[in-house]
Predict the 3D structure of the following.
Amino acid sequence: MPLFEKVEYRPVPVRDLLLEMKNLSELMIDLAYSAALFNDRELAEEVLELEKQVDNLAYLLHIMNMIAARDARDAESLVGVSIVASAADKISDAAADIAAIVTRNIGVHSLVSEIFERVEKRLIRAKVPEKSIIVGKTIGELNLPPRMGIDILAILRGKNWIINPKEDEKIHAGDILIARGAPEGLKEFKEICEGIRGKMED
Amino acid sequence: MPLFEKVEYRPVPVRDLLLEMKNLSELMIDLAYSAALFNDRELAEEVLELEKQVDNLAYLLHIMNMIAARDARDAESLVGVSIVASAADKISDAAADIAAIVTRNIGVHSLVSEIFERVEKRLIRAKVPEKSIIVGKTIGELNLPPRMGIDILAILRGKNWIINPKEDEKIHAGDILIARGAPEGLKEFKEICEGIRGKMED
C-alpha cells in the first residue's frame, strides 16, 4: 500500500482531520455520481485521488488518537471518533468504487445512469461562456445557498478540478461547474451560468 | 448471518432494487448523523434495521443479476450494476457503524457532535404541537422542496419511525420531524412546525 510509504506524521488536530474526512467523503459520493452520469473520466480520476487523500487523513487520525489516549478511559472516549473516521473512510471507498466503473472502462450500464439521473435531479453540470453574468464573481458574492438552495461542488478549469471551492474563488469564462441542491434553484442557476438568463433575482 | 436465513428469493426488477438501495443508503447517512447529534436511541436502532434491509436488497440484486446474465457479454455489462449495489451497501454499513455508537452506548464524543453540528446546519428535528398550522396537511401539500429547498427525511409518530414519508402522508399533532436542506428554509420550517410562525409564505 503506497499509503504507508507516503504519509508523514505531522501533528494535526483530530477535529480538523475528522471534519475534512467527513466533508470529503460526502463530496466524493456526489462527484462519483456525476462522473458516472456524465461519463467523465477526469472527474472519476479526481475521485480516486481524493480517496487516497481520505486514506491518508484516516491514517493520521488514528495516530493522533493513539497519542491522545493516555489511559483506558481516554481511549474509550475516543473510540467513537475512530468509528466515525472509519465510516467516512468506507463512504469514500464506496465513491471510489463507483468512480472506477468509469476509469476502468467497465461501462455505465443504462440501468445505472437511469437511476443516477432519476435521483440526481439535484446535480447539474454547466459550462460558463464569456457572456455569463457570473464571470469574475466570487462564489461568496453569488451567495447561492440562501438564494437558490444550491452549492457549487467542483469547478473544472482547463484540465484541473477545484474541489469544494472556497468563498473567494472567482468564476472564470470557460469554467465547468458542478452544482448540487434544490431542483428549481439548479434550473435557474444553469440558465444564469450559461448566459440564457441575464439577471439574478434576489 | 441471519441474512441468509431470512431472505426469500422473489423476482424484483433490478432497477427497483438498485434505486431502493441507493435511496435508503443515502437516507441512512443523514439519519445516522441525526441519531448521533440528538443522541436518539430509537432512531439509531431504525438505522440498524434499515441496514439489514439494504443487505437483503443487495442479496436479491446479486441473484437477479446472475439470472439475467446468460453469457459473458451480459455478465460484463451487468458488472457495473453490481458495483453500484455494493457501493450502496458499503455506505449503509458506514451509517450503521455510526448508529451503533449510540445503540452500544459508546458515547458520542464532543468532537463528533461538534463536527456533526457544524456540518449539519442542514438537519433539524422539530416537534409539531397541536396549534401548528401544518397539522392535518399532507407532505405533498406542504410542497417543501421548491418552497424552502428542504425535505422531510423521517417522522417519529408515537414509537414508530416513518422513513422517507410519501407525498400523501399527513402530519399529526405530536409528530417529531427530521428535515434536511437549505439552512434558511430549515429555520423557517422549524418555526412553522413548532407553531411560532403562523403562516407559510409563498
